[in-house]
Each structure stands twice: as C-alpha cells, then as structure tokens.
Amino acid sequence: MVQIFVENKPYEVKPDQNLLDACLSLGFDLPYFCWHPALHSVGACRQCAVKQFRDENDTSGRIVMACMTPAANGVRISIDDREARAFRAGVIEWLMLNHPHDCPVCDEGGECHLQDMTVMTGHSRRRYRGAKRTFINQDLGPFVNHEMSRCIQCYRCVRFYGDYAGGGDLAAFSLRSQVYFGRHQSGVLESPFSGNLAEICPTGVFTDKSLKRHYARKWDLETAPSVCVHCALGCNTIPGARYGSLRRISNRFNGAVNGYFLCDRGRYGYEFVNSPRRLRQPLLRKGRSGPAAPVSATAALRRLREIISDSRVAGIGSPRASLEANFALRRLVGPAMFASGMSEGDWRLAQKTSRILKEGPARSVSLDEVRRADAVLVLGEDVTNFAPMLDLALRQSVRQMPVRETSGAIPPWDDKAMREAVQQRRGPLFIATPAPTSLDAIATTAWRAAPDEIARLGFMVASLLDKSAPAPAGLGSRERSIATAIAAALGEAERPLVIAGTGLGSEAVLEAAANVAWTLSAGGRTAGLCLTLPEANSMGAALMEGGPISRAVEAIESGSADTVVILENDLCRRAAPSLVENLFEKARHVIVIDSLINPTVARAGVALPAATFAESDGTFVSSEGRAQRYFKVMPPSGEVMESWRWLAAMGPAADAWRMVGEVAKDLENDLPVFSGISAAVYGAGFRISGQKIARQPRGYSGRTAMSADIGVAERQPPVDDDSPLSFSMEGFQGEPPPPLIPRYWAPGWNSVQALNKFQEEVGGPLRGGNPGRRLIEPAPGRPEQPPAPQPPFFNLPPAPFSPPAGRWLLAPLYHTFGSEELSILSPGIRQLAPAAYLALSQKDADDLGIGAGGIAELETATGFLRLPVRLAETLPSGVAGVPVCLEGLEGIVSPGEYVRIRAASRK
Amino acid sequence: MLSREEKEEIEAAAAAFPVRQSVAIDALRIVQRYRGWVPDEAIDDLGELLEMSTAELDGVASFYNLIFRRPVGRHVILACDSVSCWLLGSDGLMEYISGRLGIASGQTTADGRFTLLPSVCLGACDRAPVMMIDDDLHTNLDAEKVDRILERYE
Ligand code: SF4
Ligand code: SF4
Ligand code: FES
Ligand code: FES
User: What is the interface pTM, i.e. ipTM, of the complex?
Assistant: First the structure.
C-alpha cells in the first residue's frame, strides 16, 4: 500500500494505479469521460484534472490529469482546489459547445454520464451562442442507434470496439470539431459485441435500438438481477420491464464472469419474452387428436391431477430450465423415470464434460481466468458463435504475454502507451477447428481439420508434454510440428488454458483436451480447462442424475410409464423425428410445460404456459460450474406460472413448496452435488432495515394511472413470496448484497457508471464478492511420481479421419445469431441470422459438380434435404458443414453422422 | 483498382517496415500523387493491400487535411490562417482570394484551376502572411502580390 494525500488528508491506496482510480475507489466524486475501468486511461478528455503539489510547502501546485498520474507514495493532490475546479468547468463547457442539449428526446436522458458529469462540475449555464456542428447519422443495423451530434469526442467507443473487442468497422474519422465516430458507411456493425457501445458511450450517441422501439426511461423500468439464458456461460444481466413487457437487457457486473460486457445475443435475445408466440393459457386437447382448447389454470390442474393420479409418469427435463424446475419434475416422476432432456449425443458429451472437470486436476476456469490466461489452445470450438463472450475474453488473453514482456516499464493502466509498446504482438493462441473462425485473425496458428484429426492433434500435444499420455499413431509431419509448437507454448506458460466443448459433438476432442490440461497440471501448476456447453443450464442438467430423452421414450415403449411430462423442451429440436413420433404415438398422455408455442407444445395433450426467465426465479449452473440465481423482473401475468409451480401443483406434493427457495433446499438435500446453491443467495425472508429491496426505482412514474383502464383504484403491488425483492418502489433503494443488486444507481450517478459505487475498488469485485457459487473444483493435483496418475489419461486416440467413399461427415456450424432457440424470436437477431446452407470445400464441391450458389441434395438418416452450397475454402475434404438449427434445419444435424451428397437437379 | 505503378511503389515503401500498416500514410500519398486525390475505391483497395479495414484506413485518410478525399483543382492553395498570419491580416487576404477566384474556402473554381483551402501554420511565421500553392511557399503577401502569383499557375 502507498500513502497519498487528498486535500492534505492521508489515505492508504493500492500501488500501481492512477490517481483517478484511487480517488474513485476512495469514494471521491471526480468527473471523467475517456477513462473506463476496463479500458483504462488515455488522457483524452481532460475532465479529470486535479491540482498536484510537490510537497506540503508547495501552495501553487500544478494541474495534472488524475487518470494519467500514478498514485505514487507521498503524492499530494487537491480535487477541491479553485483552479482545478475552474479547469474542469472549462473542460465540460467546451466539450458541450456543440452538444445539442436535447436530453428530453434523447434515450440516454436520465441515465447519462454526460448529464451527471455536467452537473457534478457545476456547468449549469450555457454561454455559447454560436452555431453548432451537426452530423448525418448512420443506420448501424438492428441493435445500435446512432445520433452523432451528441458526441463529446471521448474516444471510448472506438477504444472498446476496436482495441478491446477487435472490431474493424468502427473508427474515428476527420479531425477538430468534425471528428466523426461511425462506420465508413451505413451498415450493420460487424462485431457481436456492438451492443456494449450503448453502455460504453457516456452520451446519447450510441443507444439501444431495441429499447427505442418500446422506450421507457431508466426510472420507469422495473429491474432485478438475472442471468443470461442464451448460452452456457452464465453472463449476469439486468433486464428491465414496464407494463408487463420486457424492454431491454443491460449488463450486471460480475468480475468473475462477464465483467462489464455482454454479447449481442445476450443483450438483444430477450424479445422472445414479448413474442406473440408465447403460450399464455393452458390448452387441453379433446381425446388424442381432437382440437386443443384454452382452459383456465384451475380446470387444467383439475384434469392434470386426475391424469397423474392414475398413470405411471415419466419426465423429460430440460437444459434450458432451472435446476428447481428440473428437480420439481424429478420429484414428481421419481429419479428412475426422469430424463435430462438432452439427446443421446448431448447427454454423453455433457456427462463426459462434467466428469472431466470433477475428476481431473485441471481447473474449470471462469471467464475472468480466461481473460488472464497467457497461452491458449482451442480444440474444435468456434467460440464466437457458440459461447460469444469467450471470444471477447480470448481477445484479452492474447495480450497477457506481450504486456508482461514490457516488464513493468509502462504502468498497465496507461493504455495508449501500452498498446504502442505491444503493437501487433500477441501471446500464443492456437485454434484447431473444421471451419474458419473469427478469432483466426489473432491466432498464432489456425489449423483446419476434421474432428477426429483435431482430437489426434490434442492427444499428440499431451503426449509431448507427458510421455505417459498416449500418442496417436501415424500423425503427419505438419501436424507433428504444430503439436510441438503448441506443447512448447503451453508448457512455458504460467497460466495455460485449454478450451474445448460439445459444439463439434466429438467425445474424442473432449478427451484430448482433458489429456492436455491434465499433463499441464503438474509441478504445482494448475492448468485451466474451459469446456463449453450449449445451454444456460446444460451443466446443471448434466450434474442432475437423469439420462437422455430416450430413457423416457423407452419407459413409455416398455410400458413402465404411460404418461410423459415434458418440461421446457422442444423435443423436435433435439431428438430424431422417429423417437418423437414414437413418444407421441405410445404415450397415453403428453403434458408439456413451456413458454412458447413450438412443435412439441402444438402436439401436447395438455400444454401449460410457463414463465420465462423474466417472470420466474431459479438457478442455472454455467459451464464453469457456477450456480447463479436469477430473479423475476416482473410477475407472470394471467394464467402463466413458473414451471416448478405447475409441477408442484399437479403432483401430490401440492402444498409442500410455497417458494422457490424450498425447492432449492430439497434439491440440495437430495443431490449433494448441488449443496451450497442456496447459501449463495438470500432467502425470501431477508430484509434490509426491515425492508424488501425495491425492483422499481424511486422515480417510477404513473403508478396510480397505469391500470386506470381497468379501474381507478390504485392496485396493490403484486406480492413476491420467492425473494427478498418487491414489485414496488417501496423498499430498500440503497446497495444490497451483490446477488440482489437490481440496478446501479447512486446519488449523483444516474448512469451505469454508478457501478463504481458498488465495487470494493473501481474495476474490482462487488462489495461482498462476485455472485455465484462454484460447484466444481479440480481434484487434487496429480502426484508427480507413480503410482499411476489419477485419473488415468484417456487412452484411445482416434484413427486418422477417412470418410467412407461417397460420404461426408456432417460438422455442426454455429451462428451467434440464428442457432439459439429463444433469441431467434427477437426481430433484430432474426434479421442477422443467415439462411440455411451447406458448406463444402472447393475440392469437394468441384468433385460433386456444384458451384457456389448451387443446390446440394443431402441424404441423411432421416430423409432428403436440399440446401444452397457455400464454399468454405479451408474446410477439410470429406467434411460438410451444416448450420445448427437455422430456420428449416431444426433437429437436422446429428454430429458424427455420415451423409450422401449430390448435386440437385435444377428445378 | 490500384495501378501497377502504385502497387509497386507502395510495396517498396512497405518493405522497410515490420508491419504493413506502417505505410498507410505513404500509400495514400502515392495514390494521391497519381490521381490528384484519394477516391473511395482506392481506400478499399489500399485497405486490402495493407491488411487494414476500410474504416481504419479512412480514419487515417480523413484525419490529414493534405490527403484529399474529394477531387481538387489543378492547383491547391493552402492559405495559412494560424495566429501570426492572422495578426498580419490573413483574414482579409483569404477574402480577397475568394473574391478573385469566385469560390469560398473549400471550393474549386469551375474551370478546375484552383482549390482554396485554409491551413494551419506553415512554419514561416516570420514572413507572414503566407500561403502555399502546390509545393511552392509564397510569403509576405498582399493583394497585389497574390494577383501576380496566381497568374503563374495555369
Ligand atoms: S460516440 Fe460516445 S463514446 Fe464515442 S467519442 Fe463520442 S461520446 Fe465518446
Ligand atoms: S456469452 Fe452467452 S451467456 Fe454471455 S451474454 Fe452472450 S449468450 Fe448470454
Ligand atoms: S478521464 Fe482523465 S483525461 Fe479523460
Ligand atoms: S501562422 Fe502562418 S505560417 Fe505560422
């Protein structure tokens, strides 16, 4: 620690930071624009000026930029100094010269850092009377709105978009008062992290376009802590709702997970909650094939209890439903009759994933540890499209080594100087995938191969690192030299990391990744292992004993069950059509609980409207193994209920569970792997100063009027039995414990940057720790000496890839926008989703006589399919890429399947 | 499309640097020397050649006021409007040139002969007010001298 003096008072602060960092962490209000806790300092805006004094006798001092001055021992500054204050007032005045002062029509208004800083510096009278420069705005696509005239030239947008996130299509143009931040011409922003611009830009230049379509001010939004449902990484979010519809998702800081950012799928995928495809009323079918008619919840439950009481019930859970909902189903049908809701292949992969992480010595890393890894091997995964925020994390990890090589000569927070020093140098990142990925551009080596060859490469790397690990036979010399380079880089690293996952559908790749990470976890070092999974609760479903969907189907077929309850699961996306057919054919009753009308719901005998994440509480376990609770943002409306409530109500346990916490408690008792999930959150009885935490901000308007169309009496706010949050503006408005923070707001800090006030130190963890409870920790390190390593290495490197003549291996290709089931219902995401296609290498396409844009006919296990061909230059021969779940391709790809392909006759 | 000469000159310049982006400014100047200005297509082509995105390169191009992103006349007048020249009457001089050529600052004469642009200090403050036409510096200007000088540029 070092001692600095502010207004002549001594303070202990951490060394290696700048004065702005230090002052904000100490709680001083010092205005700033260009500095950002994740982007650090460039000294561009001159807003953070303070007076620095040589020693206690220096009375004149000099103006310095706090963000560019090290907080060295003995530094004496004044924030309050008259000249410093005048300087800051001058800066904001000139920054505001050209600003249109259009707050009333600006979407940023009410949560604007520029407003806050202007007020903070006391610039409340405008003297400038001249003409202002104005700009023409661009159409940047469905996510981000552009209103350039509001810009104050802080450069944060381009520093985030280009420097931090690696995007190439946003830049600063021109000079002087004409500097323009945008694309070189109108068009969709290419980066899948573009939505962060809305939070990064301290003004109303970049704002959330999805919010604009159903706008509400921050003070009119009901908010609660939540978790993203669009992949398995478990980014923390703050959804905002009004009038019973969801209006936007903003970032919720979790230092161990997403930090300050979200991907665009996570930010803009929410609109499925408002979709006209929502199931809002129970449907009851007359007989087996009669029409389904809407009924009341009471009527539906009456019928359900009749059904359940005289049948043998099997249950199909879901990797996109909460632990609590899955467990409620498991309780209802009994452990033997409970299936996890994954396909055979997904189940095997998920089991293998959780086993590798539980039993091996490598550590399942958080996203933050990914950001800090200094050498990375990616085996098989296109992370950008499968688990987008991993891409952003890897873009930081490649900076670790070159930054370290500057060996302390430049303070790490001096961003401009550091980037100047680092130039284009990057740390080791090796990528082996069948198709090109957008990270290839920053990779040391990007290698294209079939899944089995990728696994063989991994096995080779492991065997080079540790001779007792099995080596593949007959590896080519090029592969061998790549493996040698990888082994050397990972071996030398301090924090090596291996990334693999279930995206390719290959168990061998998972095994290879495990072997590499295990060999690296020796000699006191714990290597990182990051295994991606497809859905928000895939890991939770994997840890809950169950089985693949076929388990339930078999139970029905064998007669040990005659009725099936399907929880939040569109089977048609996961299981072979024949399996689904069988199930619907043989089961006496099919009961489906889901939030959206999908093909499975459409065939159900009884369909029950489930609450989405925004209307329910529950726990997801992320691919890291982090259990995280999400809370209702708004109450479920009408006949919609949380899945676990439907399940509790239809079974004999009808009155056992009154709140979601009780379900979680029973889950912990039944399945010890989940113990701790409740300890990480606060029970429904938790109060601060006797109060619940208010979901609505103090300024929430229109409460007495918003239901006037129904009745003039002000209605009582809905009661929330499940959590210590209230659906009201009454309640605690201050800083609750981290898992319960419903929004960032502090006196004088109305924008997202109020977050500073919730952290132990700016940029550091939330006061009280990062939310979530890790359920998986590595097994103790493998002993260096024999006896045999625990666990043993995976022992069967696959044989070289050689597809049978005339057949192609189907490799699943993911798309950030399009491959995920729920987000595709957001109009913006749908707009960016590609149309279905088949990817072939140039050589294979030539051999088949298909040109680009030609049509191929696929013969799969389940039938014929015609798809336009896209040439993928580097795709290995014998591999055909098929996008996962794009419209028309739902349930088509079963990874590992070999198909016949021919040129389709022109029709 | 970049011409063969343009490409060769750029490649030759690039050979001196470890990263291709380093020659961005030289490359823009090479193109401008051949074409008089740098059109949009050239930015695209150069971006590809130098492994830079169009936006990134145009950010560079549009920053420098001596890289012309719109067509200019046969001769470019850069009239200094920084402080020394201003003290010695650059305002009036600029107005005079404007009037004489019938164009405002930033415009090109109808016959394509002159483009008039303001410029920051040309480093000849001791001989203010000054202007440059193409590569020639003209100092200690007054209206009469300007008349004579302009005659010389066809
Ligand atoms: S657009 Fe926003 S982030 Fe970018 S420079 Fe302007 S004010 Fe700063
Ligand atoms: S990376 Fe995954 S969890 Fe994170 S915001 Fe994107 S979709 Fe959501
Ligand atoms: S925040 Fe310090 S100069 Fe911008
Ligand atoms: S001010 Fe005109 S040359 Fe310096």
Answer: 0.93
